[in-house]
Design a protein that fits this description.
Layout (H helix, E strand, L loop, with lengths): L1 H23 L7 H7 L2 E7 L4 E2 L6 E13 L9 E5 L10 E10 L2 E3 L6 E3 L5 H10 L7 E5 L11 E5 L9 E4 L5 E5 L2 E2 L9
Length: about 200
């Protein structure tokens, strides 16, 4: 009886830990500009080395990188040679090539995780590359909220509503216009708002 009870307890503990781990790595879908705005440091970097474990650090792995450009924040690009991540399911896997990465600066270097910005440069459209390189930094005083209902109407002059089901909206940028309203642009012309929002 005692062995059976112990078995049941162990199963519950195992399921609980699995749910906790899964929940911890459950990333909310957000517009890239929103991800950019909430990140302290965003870099454009070439991954030049393979995934290697970090000595005396059980859950830590690293990739050798060369920072091409610091897109946001401040970092010593010349001295930063590695980006670190976890070996757990919350960590990331990188191939050789160029990436846009949001990173956190820690005592031992920079680190990125699954819910951070991790985008292969070659998989971005030319418009998306331009947005990360130059345009997102201009929309810092606007907020982006995700909506699932139609129409997606902003609740204030400082907000752009993003329909996560609209694939072309990834190429939109939320900027403040001459009337002091935050509005969607693609990439230079203003995107017409849903007529239902204007009523």
């Amino acid at each position: 009886m005692g062995v059976q009870l112990l078995g049941v307890v162990l199963i519950f503990l195992s399921v609980g830990l699995t749910l906790q781990t899964g929940k911890h790595c459950n990333c909310v879908k957000r517009h890239p500009q929103d991800e950019y705005s909430s990140s302290k440091i965003v870099i454009l970097a070439d991954v030049t080395g393979k995934r290697l474990p970090v000595k005396n650090q059980h859950n830590l792995v690293r990739y050798k990188i060369k920072i091409i450009k610091v897109l946001k924040g401040s970092i010593n690009a010349h001295k930063t040679q590695y980006v670190f991540t976890d070996s757990s399911s919350c960590g990331i896997k990188l191939a050789h090539g160029r990436y846009v990465l949001s990173v956190n600066q820690l005592n031992y270097g920079i680190k990125t995780m699954k819910c951070d910005i991790v985008k292969q440069w070659e998989h971005l459209s030319l418009t998306e590359q331009e947005l990360f390189s130059k345009t997102y930094k201009l929309g810092g005083n606007c907020t982006i909220s995700t909506c699932s209902d139609s129409p997606c109407c902003p609740q204030s002059v400082n907000e752009c509503k993003w329909d996560a089901n609209s694939p072309d909206a990834l190429e939109y940028v939320c900027l403040r216009d001459s009337d002091n309203y935050c509005s969607w642009y693609w990439p230079a012309s203003r995107v017409e708002e849903d007529e239902a929002c204007l009523e």
